[in-house]
Amino acid sequence: MIRTIQVTVDCHDPERLARFWAEALGYIIPGPPGVRLGADDDPLVAWKEFIADLGIELGPENMRAAIEDPEQVGPRVFFQTVPEPKTVKNRVHLDVRAAPGLDGDERMDALEAECTRLTGLGGTRLRRVDPDPPLEHGFIVMADPEGNEFCLD
Fold it and tell me: What whole-number distance in Å separates Cα of residue 141 and Cα of residue 64?
């Protein structure tokens, strides 16, 4: 039996990371169950209103957010608040396929363009690894707004 997965990210600011990763992956932030959102409605605001209407008071330590693949192919990504800081390199990271089917300069140009876009959204460029055929096709190592490393691949 094949199982689906959810990627869970421990963080300090679930809303900020959900917004960053939704943009990075082309995902959406789903609204609350039974709530129809207009084109300009912010799903995270809708969630806060939904939870408040249920009479639930959430402090910053209980905040959560999620993003989903609009095609429902990729895994759901869940962001939850944790009290402890990130202290070392993450042991699991995401490889964002930003240049599928491209090689050489064309590939690296596509990765550089995506790096620039994600830097504008709060990501940080850490280093570039140039192609070294036949085994290395080239990639860019980045960090999200809370320092979690990922690769543009």
Answer: 26
Is the pTM higher than 0.85?
A: yes
Contact (CB, 8 A) for 139 and 111: yes
> Would you say the C-alpha torsion 5, 62, 87, 20 has a positive or negative sign?
positive
Yes or no: say if 133 and 121 are a contact pair by the CB < 8 Å rule.
Answer: no
Instruction: State the Cα–Cα distance between residues 136 and 124, nearest whole angstrom.
Output: 22
Which residues fall within 8 angstroms of residue 61, CB to CB, at 6 or more apart?
81, 83
Peptide bond into 134 cis (omega under 30): yes
The C-alpha atoms of residue 123 and residue 48 are separated, in whole angstroms, by 26
Q: Report the run of H or E that residue 57 belongs to, with start and end.
A: none
Strand order in the sheet with 95-96: 95-96, 149-152, 139-143, 124-129
What tens digit of pLDDT does each residue of 36-70 get? 999 899 999 999 899 889 888 887 777 899 999 99
Cα(78)–Cα(13) distance, integer angstroms: 12
